[in-house]
Structure formats: structure tokens, C-alpha cells
Specification:
The strands form 2 sheets. Strands 1-6-5-3-2 form a 5-stranded mixed sheet. The protein is of the alpha+beta class. The protein has helices spanning 8-27, 41-58, 127-133, 159-172, and strands spanning 2-5, 76-78, 81-88, 95-97, 107-115, 118-126, 135-139, 144-151. The chain has one domain. It contains 4 helices and 8 strands, in the order βααβββββαββα. A hairpin with a 4-residue loop joins β7 (135-139) and β8.
């Protein structure tokens, strides 16, 4: 797992962005993929933004936590490769989508919250491999099926191999 430390300034920006993103999304009728009923929308937005920022720092991409809008399946780009960043507060958590069809980007990256300042990039997977490997997600807290699909961390490729893959694609495409 690749660990990414966030500065206090970055954490404050994430908190401010999460507050606004939560208000904007709820006002637009967009709901979170809540699988843990004990967490608020704002908490879910905060951990998601922290994961997005960690990925952008690790792969040196342009990313601004204050650029808002309802995403269309991509949170950022490495070169021309779109990434969907999924984040969980559970260090051993899974990469989770509402359905196979909701995985729209070519690549999804899983981040986990290690502590308040540290995020871990657990790995990545492409859409085709996700569709082949995913199974129905059962919430471990309540032992219920959720209708969502997931892959475990051991089914992901390493964070380092994402850099290699996106560099190969960038160089091949000019």
C-alpha cells in the first residue's frame, strides 16, 4: 500500500470542500453510496475528497478539491486516462460500485483512510477485470446484501503499476 500524508492545510481544504460538496450534491438530489448508516453525507464526502487528493499527489496530477459538480464517472485524469477514485475509512475495505455498469472510467483506484492525515492507495483495477472478478457486496457490520458489487484489495494491481501503465499509455498516444 502506498501511503500519502496530507498536510494540515490540505486537510482544511478537504473539510471546506466536503462541506460545500455535500450541500451541492444533496441540493441536486444526488445521494451517496452509503453502506454504513452511522456516517453522515458530509463524512462520506470528506473521506472521498481526501482520497482524491491523495491520488492526485501520488501521481502528480492536476486536481482542485474546490472544482465541484456531479462527476460523470471520472474524478481526475492521469494524462488522457480517466480515473474513478473510491475511498473507504476501512483499511481492509473493498473497492465498491453500485453496479458493474456504474464503473464508467477505464480505471478505478481504491484509497483507504489510515488515520486523519494519512491515506493509503491500496491499488487499482480496470473496468474489464472488475466485471470479471467482482462479487456481491455483503455489509460485514449488518451481514446484509446491499445490491452493490465489489472486489477485495488482493484482487487489485499495485499502486506502482498504475504509474507504469499510465506512462505507457501517455507515451504511446503522444
Amino acid at each position: 500500500m502506498l501511503k500519502v500524508k496530507l498536510s494540515n492545510k490540505e486537510l482544511l481544504s478537504c473539510q471546506q470542500a466536503a462541506n460545500f460538496r455535500s450541500m451541492l450534491a444533496r441540493a441536486s438530489g444526488v445521494t451517496n453510496q452509503r453502506k454504513d448508516p452511522t456516517r453522515t453525507d458530509q463524512e462520506l464526502d470528506l473521506v472521498g475528497i481526501k482520497g482524491e487528493l491523495a491520488v492526485s499527489k501520488a501521481y502528480n496530477t492536476d486536481f482542485n478539491v474546490f472544482e465541484f459538480g456531479v462527476d460523470a464517472g471520472a474524478d481526475m485524469f492521469i494524462g488522457d486516462v480517466a480515473l474513478d477514485v473510491k475511498t473507504t475509512k476501512y483499511v481492509t475495505g473493498t473497492l465498491l460500485f453500485k453496479s458493474v455498469e456504474s464503473f464508467k472510467s477505464p480505471i478505478a483506484v481504491l484509497c483507504v483512510e489510515i488515520d486523519a492525515n494519512t491515506m493509503g492507495i491500496a491499488g487499482w483495477i480496470n473496468r474489464k477485470d472488475f466485471a470479471a472478478k467482482c462479487c456481491e457486496f455483503i455489509n460485514p457490520k449488518i451481514k446484509n446484501k446491499t445490491g452493490s458489487v465489489c472486489v477485495n484489495q488482493d484482487q487489485l494491481q499495485s499502486p506502482e503499476s498504475l504509474w507504469l501503465k499510465t506512462t505507457e499509455l501517455r507515451l504511446a498516444n503522444g
